[in-house]
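Re: [help] complex structure
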Amino acid sequence: MTWVGQRVARKEDLPLVTGTGTYVPDFNLPGTLEVAFVRSPLAHARILSIDTAEALSAEGVVAIYTGPDIRDQVHALVLDQEAAPPGLETAAPEIYPATIEILADAEVRHVGQAVAAVVADSRYHAEDAAELVRIDYDELRAALDPEQARLPGAPIVFDNVPNNVQARYRIRVGDADAALDGAEHRLAMKIRSQRVMAAPMETRGVLASTVGEETTVWSSTQIPWAVRNSIAGAIGVPQRQIRVKIPHMGGGFGQKVNVYPEEVLVTYISRALHRPVRWVEDRVENMIASGHARDQLHNVEAAFDGEGHITAIRDRFVLDSGVACPYPLSSAYNVASHFRSMYRIANFSIDAECVLTHKMFNLPYRGAGRPEAAFVMDRVINAVAQELSLDPAEVIMRNLIADEEQPYRMGMPYRDGHEVVYDASGFPAAFERLLELIGYAEHRRTQTQLRAQGIHRGIGLGTYVEGTGVGPFESGQVHVDAQGHVVVYSGCAPHGQGLDTTMSQVVADAFGITPEEVVFRAGDTALLPYGVGTFASRSVVTAGAAIIESSNRLLKRIKAIAGEMLEMAPEDLEVGAGRVRVRGVPSRGVSFKEVYRAASPGPGARLPEGMDPGTAERFYWVPPTVTWGFGVVGAVVDVDPETGVVDVRKVVMLHDCGRVINPLIVEGQIEGGLVQGIGATLYEHVIYDESGQPRATTFLDYLLPTSAEVPEIIQEHLVGTPSDRNPLGVKGVGESGPISPPAAIANAVIDALSPLKIQLNELPLSPATVAAAIWRAGG
Amino acid sequence: MKEVDVRLTVNGRECTARCEPRTTLADFLRGHLGLTGTHLGCEHGVCGACTVLLDGATARSCLMLAVQGQGHEVTTIEGLGTPENPHPLMRAFSEMHGLQCGFCTPGFILSAHEYLRENPRPDRQAMRKDLSGNICRCTGYVKIFAAVERAAELMAEPEAARS
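Output below.
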């Protein structure tokens, strides 16, 4: 049988469902010291003095570190992970690297910045002593509004970033200015995606243990290789003396795609004290000192004709980067490359500025610029329909790229420097199917009648495209071990995506074994010289390609070795059930174990002339560019016009993610992503007050969707377009869920109240926001 | 701080350990008894990851002190099943893909255990409300509902048919 395409239950589940998994906080290494941080209570201040004397004498305290203490031993992280590749020159990107101090040296730049680290024999004692560290600050004026922060006279966050503009770019496709000047109709809108956070259920955490010269660092991170390299650089030791491994990990969603100061410092302390040292972030720290996301304000204009065809888009937006975004261009540039979605819009102009403020830094969270762009684009489409008194579905349909126009060229580079060319089609058919599944025609027939009964029901629509499987590369190695097992190593960093199972299905098919028989290991820098990690809907595409290519090379190798053993031509051999067999004579063959023995160095080796020993093949896959998934989403909502409360009743999503390896896992990704999107649309908001104090610091203030908020979800995998940009024909799917809910739900609320012609251009759609829009419209 | 002896019945066994009186039940279970299947997601009583059963009823072990548990029966995820002999809820969560990262899963399974004891024939609408005390950030809950329904089927089967 073929395993690819089957709903295989996950191999990785047993420890997780029985509570025998091992997350960073679960390790029990003898003598482990625990760290608690003293963090800045102010958005911007000079540190006048730090007094640790009383804290040092507290029970259980072993050491305390401050910025000046480590100044000469531990360097700040200067993260410029985002060089502009060739091909991106037309976007004229300007980028300044992010500086992240390990401990604040002289100045604090956001509430929550680490100022001192207290190391003690227990977390309780470390926290007790942290309260005894006395710090005097001289509070300074803070830059908090990104639109103001880029103007002359604003407080400067880092001296090396002029006017606080950490990154900017511009895109010009066609001539949007001329099209707007000559337009039959035009509109202008101000649209905001609020600041949110990923809020993985496990906070960050890191445990370092030093044996001899090597420190093993277990960290809850999505990018172990980058963490290793940064730690080694910051503390000045050879990279191979640092081994970074991810144990079980309770989610990431982009918040853990970064090297954080705590990872560097905990490693440094373990090496300095020759003890295992651990820091586990608490939830309040996670909310103020782990990456936030989104936070974009768009000023968009559109030109369109009387039939609703959009002829031009001109957008200027500001992204609030917080204290220094380690990926200054990532989310910001994704806005441009995904903005026009499935639509044919010939003239497009966009100018982006990423501005530093005295808040926690902004990271690419699940979707990374795509939800923000889709919210703007599909709000614009909806506003065009409102303006022309057309049905929004009709306006979407008129602007969709037709199949005969595919592969559609968007006339601009992707972030990797290659031109955006969609490798997908079937947009109109997908959209028509959405209307059918959601009962759009029926809704239009019954909406007025329902309204007369007091039920304000609306349907809103959204579309998206998603460039997936971004480079620069990913690694894979497949080998047969001494026992005859097929063992896979990869540079990806799974933390809930089910990559063990998915990759094992692929390898099982290649070797004629079951997924259970495949040994899969990943997220450990000792496995492979190069690796990247798991983020950006990339692992099944990039690690999958590296693994299938390694598998194919290994099959060739073991057939050649078996051919030597059996005195047969490799073409006459086949592989199955852990053996290499003679085609047509299945009883004649050799086991993988025997092949391993024959391939081992030494006098017993039986290798073909000129072949090096071993039964391993490794491959680094470099994608030609991203591969494009797409989808359509509809939301059905009921709105209470008195209170502004929105009840999402149903969400329907159709999507193309190329070839599906495990439908069960893909469905889980879609459902989880959609519900995160509902959270970001209706509930979640990271609020800072006018003095730079974060106002959402617990789950009582930052509302995540619970099971009670989950609507009926209907999803359909489109029999779409297997990618020809990777050997498995797959497209990424991890981030597709959260892209369209903001637009679809906002448009649904507007539809529910259509006689009022309200506008909803700011997230989240809290009852207060919706009620205010109703009030403004005179309802 | 002065330590005290704490005696608890955990997963059917008498356990004694010395700890500071301020030690939370969660920290006691994890740090003193090594039962790390009880996870801490927020430590302020919202997320439900640290849910245990106290005399059979769900309780937030991050909001309780260990000393408050004296004289009560505590059941953690480790007491419900093991890798060798997983509880039907554990099997159902895996079968229906009711987990991704797994961090919320032990708490969810214990809440679902209480729910199924009171509602052996689960109703999805009721379940949405009754299970809303546990937050999952990965699954969007849909497959958790399916897992609880599947567990109800498995638990309704006679013992012999289960193995």
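Chain B has two domains: 4-80, 88-162.
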